[in-house]
Design goal:
This protein is an alpha/beta fold and 243 residues long. The chain is 30% helix and 25% strand. Bound molecules: S-adenosylmethionine (SAM).
Length: 243
């Protein structure tokens, strides 16, 4: 799948997308946003915003930026934003693999049903990390390939077929996270048959080999991650999960 195909496939879905993929994946979108507990003026980027189904769910006290490459999908999102008078929302046509935002522009980056729909998930995830501030949150909602080897084998067989429809089914969460500075802080299965996962990560970008979170250090001299919801998390030992 290349960008031209993204534009063609998703723009062809744009007018029917909400009817087909609206309700069935609503629970996941709702869980993502409810669990954000977004703070006043929090800057949130929604990557692959599509028709903007999630936009009305964000609190109006946040600043929301949505990007999508498909002109058709984005037109629907713009229409929705206008209908709901969402002055706190900005929408741009942009490739998520080469974003036009400066480093550390956002507190939170959300990608709902996107990492398996993009031509190059690695570039997109790296860009999400770049534009999210250190200690910020990166939330991915997606179907990732199953831990069960038999089901994973079926997903692998199906993937070349679903790629023609606009997404792949053979991408594992550990593959997405491999080599990144993302630390999973929460994982929840959502949607029908619990086959989709909401994965919330802390962006542990390293600067000069140290974790910088608002330049802060806790009392022990250890780097501290400060969540926007006020939770303070101490830097974990290598390999230790932050949950
Ligand atoms: C399955 S849809 C998800 C839409 C929406 N997030 C939702 O919750 O329904 C995937 C979206 O990702 C967009 N997309 C795919 N590749 C992209 C890229 N490289 N840059 C920006 N958007 C992209 C598609 O145009 C499409 O709108």
């Amino acid at each position: 799948m290349d960008l031209e195909k993204v534009e063609r496939v998703y723009t062809s879905y744009a007018k029917i997308y909400d009817r087909v993929f609206g309700k069935v994946f609503h629970e996941g979108r709702q869980s993502v946003i409810q669990n954000l507990n977004a703070q006043r003026d929090e800057k949130i980027l929604e990557v692959g915003v599509g028709t903007g189904l999630a936009l009305p769910m964000y609190p109006r006290h946040c600043q929301i930026v949505g990007i999508d490459f498909s002109e058709g999908m984005l037109d629907q999102a713009k229409q929705r934003a206008a209908e709901h008078r969402m002055d706190h929302v900005q929408l741009h046509r942009m490739d998520a693999a080469a974003m036009e935002f400066k480093d550390d522009s956002f507190d939170t980056v959300v990608a709902a049903y996107v990492v398996t729909a993009v031509p190059d998930y690695r570039k997109v995830v790296n860009e999400m990390i770049r534009v999210c501030r250190p200690g910020g949150r990166i939330v991915m909602l997606n179907h990732f390939s199953n831990d069960n080897k038999f089901i994973a084998a079926i997903e692998k067989v199906l993937s070349p077929i679903t790629k023609n429809l606009g997404w792949r089914t053979d991408l594992a969460l550990h593959t997405v996270l491999e080599g990144t500075q993302l630390h999973v802080s929460r994982k929840q299965n959502v949607n029908p048959f619990r086959l989709w996962a909401l994965v919330e990560c802390v962006n542990e970008k390293y600067v000069n080999g140290k974790t910088h979170i608002n330049g802060s250090k806790n009392g022990n001299g250890a780097a501290a991650y400060v969540h926007l919801n006020g939770t303070h998390l101490t830097e974990p030992a290598p390999g230790q999960a932050l949950v």
